[in-house]
Amino acid sequence: MAGRFAQRPVPARAGTVPRQSTAESRRWTPPGPLDLRLVLGPLRRGPADPTYRATPDGSFWRAGRTPSGPGTLRVALRSGTVHADAWGPGAGWLLGQLPGLLGESDEPEAFVPRHRLVAATHRRRPGLRLTRTGLVLESLIPSVLEQKVTTDEAYRAWRLLIRKYGEPAPGPVPEHMYVMPEPRTWRMIPSWEWHRAGVDDKRASTVLRAVRVAPRLEETAAMEPEQARQRLELIPGIGPWTSAETVQRSHGAPDAVTVGDLHLPGIVGYALAGERDSDDARMLELLEPYRGQRHRAARVILLSGHTPPRRTPKMPRTDIGSL
């Protein structure tokens, strides 16, 4: 696959770490409007995610562990054409997956707004497409870390673990970019390092159970989203919330609506019915007209910014280091 793409030297820029000077490149024309920030944004786990970076020149960088090995991808949209460069053993795989990553297999035209707010937001965001990474563990593990804690806590845990146990991303990348550890490395992380990262035993054990069967989980990238979710949920500690958060990214699943979320039911209820205290059942009832596209509908609602006024305290931070 790598032979399909041109190789050319890419000079290191100021503020980057030159680890590999030769890039494989690809140009691709999307089938319609494309907003890279909206499409790739769900892959970013916090503002300091070591595997993701957006730079002032309009480029988006992501470092990933592919079936061919670690790789770094840089994409930018110029005059309607995607310019992509990749480095490392996984470069060819990343470029081969580029159209899927940017939503080529997505079908936004299948989405029919049923509410005025949704229709207005949908018109303002024509470049929204659902990403499909084709990689399961890189979405599953941070989703497990996000279980039952604040996003700040989860992002901190992901950042600390990746920086300590990952490997430097190949290529002339922005500083402090890393590829997440391979499954064997995850299994070797000692218990006290999980503790220092703020990860309790339950979430750490779930990650360890998942990486022990990593090949079986990565196989689900070729399955339909519902089949993939069923296999993921065979692992103790992985339920509907985590499986949905995973396949939304790995599979570009348009109907994998997240249930069990602390905030989403209230946001959907407020946006679609003016209700402040909706639960999962009510959220699913309100999203029923969008069946087949419920995840996309939820994303459009979130992009509308139409959220209920906060009346309750935020979820308290949990400092397990003090326990």
TrEMBL record:
This is DNA-3-methyladenine glycosylase II. InterPro entries: Alkylbase_DNA_Glycosylase/TA (IPR051912), DNA_glycosylase (IPR011257), HhH-GPD_domain (IPR003265). Signal peptide: none annotated. It comes from Streptomyces solicavernae. Its EC number is 3.2.2.21. Keywords: DNA damage, DNA repair. Residues 1-33, 304-323 are annotated as: Disordered. It catalyses: Hydrolysis of alkylated DNA, releasing 3-methyladenine, 3-methylguanine, 7-methylguanine and 7-methyladenine.
